[in-house]
Description:
Layout: H1 2-22, H2 29-40, H3 44-50, E1 55-61, E2 64-70, E3 78-82, H4 96-106, E4 109-113, H5 125-140, E5 145-150, H6 152-166, E6 175-178, H7 200-211, E7 234-239, H8 245-257, E8 262-267, H9 274-277, H10 282-302
Parallel strand pairs: 3-4, 3-5, 5-6, 6-7, 7-8
Antiparallel strand pairs: 1-2, 2-4
Amino acid sequence: MRIEALRTWLSLRAYGAVTGTLFGATTPPLAMRRRFERYGATSRRRLLRRHPGLVFIDHRVGSLAMESVRAVEAPARAILYLHGGAFLMGSPASYRSRAARVSYRCRAEVFVPDYRLAPEHPYPAALDDALAAWHHVRSQRRGPLLVAGDSAGGGLALSLMLRLRDAGEPAPDGAVLLSPWVDLTVPSGSEPSRDLWFTADHLRHWASHYAGGADPQDPLISPVHADLSRLPPFLLLLGEDELLAEEGRRLIRRSREAGTDARLLLGRGMQHDWPLTLPWLGESRRAWAEIAAFVAERASASGRDGTVSRRSRRATVTLEGGVP
Length: 324
């Protein structure tokens, strides 16, 4: 137990030291993007050497490129995954190994669009691309379809669900949101934080790049301020000590008040995006088990997963700490 606790302590602080060095609050966006790709991108060839069963497919929706990955044979469900990176960085290449892990854990084909990034392409470019990607995947795959994302991508996934609802279009069968950034007005920036990776200054600078000249209180930019009724069930994962924890709790509370099935998994002592960045930790393994259970439940409830539709059962998600 002591060894596991020490490994957790060291992992959290080592990763924090790396992010603090490479991605400062005032580091120019293009410099951060280059660093993100340099240290995060993984080639298909490299992954195939380690996991020869992986299958990659290239997709094109107009000018939007998208990559899908299958880590299991004949997956019966699909996930549109919107990558993180503060709306400024990230790509299918830098999320390739993570997408493969999602595919394997959730037994799904995972689609990662190369959506346009700020500051060159501020809001609503990323949301427009997410919508185009959604339409493409839905037209290509007939089984259950979920949406997922982390950090900025988690907020983008929620904005996509709002846009689909408001347009009267079919909704995803469910959503998985990992440490989503859902309030670009940065109200949490003035509160004390035990975040080892990011500061309120990071959020302020990054939000200004994405919002551009738009109002950051726009519900499609900061979806925590939206009408959260009539949304599909979603699982929200939050690190207990991350800077975005307060707005994530607020999202859960407001969603439940609106009648939406919103479930919270709180990572004790964890930081931002911990299941993706530190998958070897005990808390990460538990999180992946809960994600897989939720995806399987929602796929089964859809009636399109090779099973007979039946009353949805709640996933085995532990609501730790409650939602104040």
